[in-house]
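Quick one:
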Amino acid sequence: MCLAVPGRVLDIGEKDGTRMATVDFGGVQKEVCLEYLPDLQVGEYAIVHVGFALQRLDEESARQTLALFEELGMLQEEFGDPWEQAAAQAGADSPWPFADGPASGEAAAPQHVQEEGRP
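Output:
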């Protein structure tokens, strides 16, 4: 499920000619496009959907919504590690064979199976 999630703008910059921001969603930080809200400033809150800030939001409403999403487990669903989520759905404790995750130097995600006829 994709949610429209409130987040707080931490910093603003430009990337390839597009106004972008680092936005905090209750502890998770993501890069967000600000083209729909060109006057949004650092410290303000906005509702973000699929990487775009869509609507300005007051701080109290943002905090209440984030608290509700957290209580319902929706923030973990939206921003959590997809490998851990898949393991949990499959009934496994962890997607990694060892409790502390992948060993140093190993890829974090499982390797893809080789295609037939390819070395």
